[in-house]
Amino acid sequence: MSDPNDAVGDAVPASQKGSWASFLKSIASFSGDLSSLTAPPFILSPISLTEFPAYWCERPDLFAAIADAKTEEERSIAVLRWFISTLKGQYTSRNEKLGSEKKPLNPVLGELFYGYWPDVHGRGQTDLVVEQVSHHPPITAYWIENKSKGISLQGHNAQKTSFSGGSIIVKQIGHAVLTVDLKEGKTEQFLITLPKLRIDGLWYGSPYVELADTSNIQSSSGWLSSIEYKGKGYFSGKSHQFKAVLTPPGSNNTKHTYEGLWHTTSKDVHTGHTFTDVQGPKEEVSVASLEEQSEWESRKLWHAVAKGIREGDFEVASREKSKIENDQRQRRRDEVAAGTKWELKHFEYLDSDPLYEELGRLFKAIPPTEDAYVYRHNGPTFSPSPSAAA
Q1: Cα(76)–Cα(54) distance, integer angstroms
Q2: Rounded to whole angstroms, how far apart are CA atoms 8 and 224?
């Protein structure tokens, strides 16, 4: 392996090249989960991982449209279209906005994030409740609901990171379940598994995310979407490619095929019609003002750290971040001394999710079982007001 000092590119601020080279060396020699490593401040995002579930619904019209589909087949197509349209926000938005992929702030246990997307043109209001349910490892649980449309998304996400072949490999752990309450009183559910990530561009100090392998969306009706991700090869190909095939219940014969670039456009292979187009504006989640937020809400908790990062004052960012982390360590020590355990606010832990097992069996999900965090329906009530701000 070449000396990381020789590979540090112009994307790294001159004052930070030493710490970046040191960080690369520590990554290359580290054998455990990389999430425990401390990254140089300049590579930190001003956004906590607890805010990431908002990326699921930056196109609320597509989320609401799932409930309007008339048949099982049409709903599976609508779910796939919405899912592909979430990928740009989840995996490239920091790259585009901040110049390269940044490491999100590692949330504290009990951190909260609340928000909503208002009702526009009768699509219904969509609400979001997020709670950091574990710190080691970092696990984020979320609930998204458009009550008027009878559609909700519940899930959790964790990451296991490792280093291989010059890239950081991120195995996403967890899943999501999308539920649609149909007008005839029935319910249709979709199990959504998560793609693997590969973070490239490290040696140049300009990291970016590429998706890898396959993820699936399995409907309780039997329809299955399998999505294969391919990134840019060493000699050819484009970044952020995908190919999705949709198969009917009890069949391996493909009914629909979609392919393209998940961060721009894709098409229906059989008709040539556009399937997804995420080049237009997205809708940021609306949240309460800082003055109205509690000390546990993400943007209030990390305000000083985020301000330091945005202003390039890495000394302030590092100092404020250490204060929060030291406070958390002390809380954990106090709990051990008192013989108490942190109580979750909005979610209940299940060591095995029966729906994951049931639907996962249809496409031989790996692993065959997973735990879950079930929403307690005790989140805040969102009523749009002049004080709400994106």
Answers
A1: 22
A2: 44
pTM for the complete prediction?
0.89
**SS3 category, 231:** coil
Condensed to tens digits (0 to 9), the pLDDT of residues 177-207 reads: 999 999 888 999 999 999 999 888 777 667 7
CA nearest neighbour of 358 among 160, 111, 189 = 189
Residue 352: CB atoms within 10 Å:
10
Burial grade of 64 (CB within 10 A; 0-12, 13-18, 19 or more): buried
Question: For residue 45, is pLDDT > 90?
Answer: no
Note the pLDDT tens digit of each residue in 126-181: 999 999 999 888 899 999 999 999 999 999 999 888 887 778 888 999 999 999 99
Q: What is the DSSP string of 235-289?
A: SS--TTEEEEEEE-TT--S-SEEEEEETTSEEEETTT--EEEE--S---PPBB--
Task: Give the residue among 384, 363, 185 at the shortest CA–CA distance from 288.
Answer: 384
CB 173, CB 157: distance < 8 Å: yes
CA distance 31 to 60: 41
Q: What is the largest CA-CA distance in the chain?
A: 65
Sign of CA dihedral 147, 150, 151, 155: positive
Q: Which residue has the tokens 């979609």?
A: 258
Q: Give the percent of the chain with pLDDT over 70.
A: 84
Token pair 């009890």 in the structure block, residue: 250
Amino acid (one-letter) located at 15: S
* Residue-range domains of the chain with CATH: 4-277 (2.40.160.120)
Residue holding tokens 């539920």?
Answer: 179
Residue 199: CB atoms within 10 Å: 18
Cβ of 40: how many Cβ atoms within 10 Å?
Answer: 21
| Cα 223 → chain centroid | 24
Tell me the pLDDT band of 9, cut-offs 50, 70 and 90.
very low
What is the structure's pLDDT at 362?
97
Give the integer Cα–Cα distance in Å for 10 and 13: 7
State the alpha helices, DSSP H only, in the chain: 4-7, 17-29, 60-68, 72-91, 93-98, 298-301, 303-310, 314-338, 354-360
